[in-house]
Design a protein that fits this description.
The structure holds two protein chains of two kinds. Chain A is mostly helical. Chain A contains 13 helices and no strands. In chain A, helix 1 crosses helix 13 and helix 2 crosses helix 13. The longest helix of chain A is centred in the first third of the chain and has 38 residues. Chain B is elongated and about 80 Å long. Chain B has two domains: 232 residues, 3-Layer(aba) Sandwich (Rossmann fold), CATH 3.40.50; 107 residues, Beta Barrel (OB fold (Dihydrolipoamide Acetyltransferase, E2P)), CATH 2.40.50. Chain B contains nine helices and 19 strands. Chain B is of the alpha+beta class. The chains are: A mainly alpha, B alpha+beta. The interface between A and B is medium-sized, with 15 and 21 residues.
């Protein structure tokens, strides 16, 4: 083997080693809090701040306490119901509105779209009071409706995706006799699967993790979400960190499930739509 | 079937200086195959889309079978279109693609099936009816696009460069198939292409457009023999017609050392004339214009000679193209004489009008 090839191989090995080292550091930073929570959920209350990841005597009973101290299943059901309804609603209404903004010609369309974009820049903390008043006017506070109705972020994402689809398809459908609704429903929507997956997963995660809105809207335990349950746990048993961590881990599990299930489609969607994170 | 008329139809895109289609006045007869041809941006696709209703008509009217359809929805015009990229619905099978328009029109399922099968038989698509478009070759997709139009039994077929995505060999085959199919169905067809060979071989008549303006509409042979102006003369024919702008002296013009007599009625009224001679209308050898050969293009059946004209024994920068036989083509750098066939010399005015 010539000296040159050897040197090239050596450089490649060093480069790969450096790259992997960097990736491991980043992965560790991302994973460590999770591992810490997992480890904490198995520790005794007294030893929760000990700097070890593997407790000597894992306290599985902490998980049992979660179920004893909060109506976990009820809250899980509530959260899933809200997340499911909001996700379906988001996908439907946002794709419909996105299609209209992308393709249907109507007066003031682009101005309206800019206005809509502007509203996205207003943080929830600013609008939460007016929204609360609105919900109260409808008589929806402390009811599941308050959790299901508001929030339509995805219009922008769907519009951008519709813009990328070829106009030929639509024109062919128009000549085939489709009404605007049929063009949307039968021809265009089936092609938005990647964008729909991204929107669905983002919405699901968003609703699942949302805390502020349920906190404002909901007081009854029987319609509360998991995030509320977690906080109520904290309020009552402020010192029981292992139980809190066990609850956090349990709340996280279904999300991991969703992600594992939708991962492939989700990644494809992110690469196709160009919407990574937000 | 029905005729299609453009009556002073104009389409002006907002924010553009000149109309994409300018005062187009043209009638496609019932059952006729009309080809719209021209360089890109000449408005041929826009004109086609105006018939389909995909493009608004800013002034003038469009009639199909005598009925004014200018303000009628695309779906109510009874036209079917074949798109350049076929625009097949990727999530539907071939059969579903072909039957979709009928399904939207709420035709009974058995009837849809029968019509789809008929069209599939006509186009040799039976084995592919359950496949998705992505599992088909380019030629098959093209046929599905045709089938989708055929099943509807429309009054007018509109085709927007339907062969441009096929390779050269398949294009020639499909060209003949489409022409034969059109004759069998007797369907009024408007066909858009930028390819003059397609235009010449397929159309009953060919309409040449330039910058949105109709230049000439005539049967292919007439277009070739009697081009209405310099643009049509240069556009139809490959290689293009040689066009020489020459001053008139003593009722004749000089091409190199060779003198061509200009008819009196032209020479009396002009100081300059554009002389047009097709490469295939030169006799190579003997007397005539002298040229020096720069490039020899052997195509097998024909040989094209690209070179420059010689005047007083020195090469001038006037380029010229001539066709030679396939036997013993002249070598590069050689000098030879070209004699134009006298009754095949065209004369145009400096503004492009045909004089003779």
């Amino acid at each position: 083997m010539s000296g040159l090839t050897e040197r090239v191989i050596k450089v490649n090995v060093v480069r790969a080693a450096a790259l992997y080292a960097a990736l491991i550091v980043v992965a560790w930073c991302a994973l460590f809090p999770m591992l810490w929570a997992l480890s904490g959920s198995l520790k005794k209350e007294a030893g929760v701040s000990e700097p070890t990841l593997l407790p000597a005597h894992p306290q599985w009973s902490n998980y049992g306490l979660v179920f004893a101290l909060m109506p976990f299943w009820r809250m899980l059901l509530n959260t899933m119901l809200y997340a499911g309804c909001v996700t379906v609603g988001q996908v439907f209404f946002c794709s419909l509105a996105g299609y209209a903004f992308a393709r249907l010609p109507f007066r003031g369309r682009d101005t309206l779209f800019l206005l809509y974009l502007a509203t996205l820049m207003v943080p929830l903390t600013v609008t939460v009071i007016p929204q609360f008043i609105l919900m109260r006017t409808f008589g929806w506070t402390d009811t599941p409706w308050a959790m299901i109705i508001p929030g339509l972020f995805g219009t922008y994402l769907m519009r951008q995706f519709f813009l990328t689809l070829p106009t030929d398809l639509e024109e062919a459908a128009i000549l085939d006799g489709c009404s605007p609704w049929q063009v949307y429903w039968r021809i265009m929507l089936p092609h938005t699967k990647p964008a729909v997956m991204v929107l669905a997963v983002l919405t699901w995660v968003n609703v699942w993790n949302d805390f502020l809105w349920p906190l404002v809207m909901i007081q009854r335990k029987d319609i509360a979400t998991l995030t509320l349950g977690l906080v109520w746990l904290q309020g009552q048993y402020v010192s029981r960190w292992p139980v809190l961590m066990a609850a956090s881990i349990l709340i996280l599990l279904p999300l991991l499930g969703v992600y594992a299930f939708a991962q492939r489609a989700f990644l494809r969607g992110i690469t196709v739509t160009g919407f990574g994170g937000r | 079937m029905a005729s299609v008329s453009f009556e002073h139809a104009t389409r002006r895109y907002p924010g553009t200086a000149r109309p994409a289609v300018d005062d187009l006045d043209l009638t496609v007869d019932d059952g006729e195959f009309l080809v719209l041809v021209g360089p890109s941006g000449c408005g041929k696709s826009t004109a086609l889309r105006m018939v389909a209703g995909l493009e608004t008509v800013d002034s003038g009217r469009i009639r199909i079978g005598g009925r004014d359809v200018t303000d009628i929805d695309p779906k109510d015009r009874d036209t079917a279109m074949v798109f350049q990229n076929y625009a097949l619905y990727p999530h539907m099978t071939v059969a579903q693609n072909m039957g979709f328009a009928l399904k939207i029109a709420k035709m009974p399922r058995a009837q849809i099936r029968a019509r789809v099968l008929d069209a599939a038989r006509l186009l040799d698509l039976q084995p592919y009816l359950d496949r998705k478009p992505k599992d088909l070759s380019g030629g098959q997709r093209q046929r599905v696009a045709m089938g989708r139009a055929i099943v509807r039994h429309p009054q007018v077929f509109l085709m927007d460069e339907p062969l441009s995505n096929l390779d050269a060999k398949l294009r020639v085959e499909t060209r003949n198939e489409i022409a034969a199919l059109q004759r069998r169905l007797g369907a009024t067809t408007v066909y858009v292409t930028h390819d003059q060979v397609e235009a010449m071989t397929m159309g009953d008549r060919v309409a040449v457009l330039r910058d949105g303006v109709l230049q000439q509409c005539a049967p292919p042979r007439a277009l070739y023999r009697d081009p209405a102006n310099v643009f049509v003369a240069g556009f139809i024919g490959s290689p293009a017609m040689n066009l020489f702008t020459l001053p008139i002296r003593d009722h004749s013009v000089a091409l190199g050392d060779w003198v061509v007599a200009v008819p009196r009625d032209i020479s009396d009224n002009a100081a300059e004339v554009i002389v047009g001679i097709r490469p295939e209308h030169f006799d190579v050898g003997g007397v005539g214009v002298e040229m020096e050969v720069d490039v020899v293009e052997e195509l097998g059946a024909d040989t094209y000679l690209y070179g420059r004209i010689i005047k007083s024994d020195s090469v001038i920068s006037q380029p010229v193209v001539a066709r030679a036989g396939w036997r013993d083509p002249p070598a590069r750098g050689s000098r030879l004489h070209l004699r134009p066939e006298p009754d095949r010399v065209h004369f145009f005015a400096p503004d492009g009008r045909r004089l003779r």
